[in-house]
């Protein structure tokens, strides 16, 4: 099997790893997180915070910013908006099938999404480690926080691909459906399902004394279940397209 998503920088790929558009989006994301880290940098030494029985909120702020930025970029990648000619294309040939449609989803698209989401998150890892160090967050809560970011990005990636399969790259309806989804997932769940709100769990993780075993488990189960549902839906839609095209 040819791994087109590694090098092919054309309209046939939703978001190849080394395309200029994807790399530019990742670079902008790193710049945003870096600026956020500078703005949130504590003016007091960590020892002063410990003496006042307080914990710097740098960890929560930087992980939350990374959650939003990285999830949004993955959503755009799944929707096929990050192609070589820019983010949004008005005259794009929407009838052109991408490699993600032409190949079996389990042996191609799913593998690409899992790897790509992981690689994109690794780009922020030095900044995340620094934020965790400043807030004196231990290793295990740090791993929990990183897993929250990864599964959130993967969920957005899968949903973005579902939007692409249903409405294509340039549909106005698909554009707004994708944005409404990420707003509801990151912010809306705080009001109607706080137990799976990623920002809420990141806030609890910033407080090293808080017991977040149950909230973290509920979040991981809920998001994992949603990802599995999207994987099944995407696979079915890809197979339907292949049968329709006689592939």
- The tally of beta strands, per DSSP, is 0
Give the rounded overall mean pLDDT. Answer: 83
Task: Please compute the radius of gyration using only Cα atoms.
Answer: 19 Å
Quaternary class: single chain
**Unreliable stretches, pLDDT < 50, 5 or more residues?**
86-94
What is the N-to-C order of secondary-structure elements (H for helix, E for strand)?
Answer: HHHHHHHHHHH
Structural class assignment: mainly alpha
Binned strand content? under 5%
Main pleated sheet: none
Shape: globular
Q: DSSP helix count? A: 11
Kindly report how far apart the N and C termini lie. Answer: 16 Å
Measured as a percent range, the helix fraction is over 70%
Tally the structural domains: 1
Descriptive notes:
There is one protein chain. By secondary structure, the protein is an all-alpha fold. It has one domain. It is built from eleven helices and no strands. Helix 4 runs antiparallel to helix 7. The longest helix is centred in the C-terminal third of the chain and has 33 residues. The chain is globular, with a radius of gyration of 19 Å. About 4% of the residues have low confidence.
